[in-house]
Amino acid sequence: MNNETMQNLVNDYASELGALHSNLVIERANNRALQAQLDKANQELKELKDKLSKEDNQEVNPEAKQEPQAK
């Protein structure tokens, strides 16, 4: 293999490595964005479950629904 062929292979490899690195950076950013969306959705789900649990609890215990009266 002559020097020019070897240099072409090295250049091709470097170019491919650069493209792979760029793709990796993009995928990591996408993963962070998706993880943030998932965390937000999980928090909203937890809040909805808590709210539903409170409503169910108030239906079972109607007195829990009433505001305490000032003396």
Structure summarized in a few sentences:
The chain has 71 residues and is mainly alpha-helical.
Please explain how this structure is put together.
This protein is 82% helix and 0% strand. It is built from 1 helix and no strands. The chain has one helix at residues 3-60. The relative contact order is 0.05.
Percent in strands: under 5%
Compute the average pLDDT. 89
Q: State the secondary-structure class.
A: mainly alpha
Distance between the termini: 97 Å
User: What is the helix fraction of residues, given as a range?
Assistant: over 70%
- Poorly predicted runs are none
Strand/helix succession = H
Write down the Rg: 29 Å
Task: Count all strands and give the number.
Answer: 0
**How many helical elements?**
1
Q: Tell me, what's the shape?
A: rod-shaped
For the biggest sheet, the summary is: none
Sequence-ordered SSE layout with sheet pairings:
Elements lengths: L2 H58 L11
Features:
rod-shaped, mainly alpha, 71 residues, 1 helix
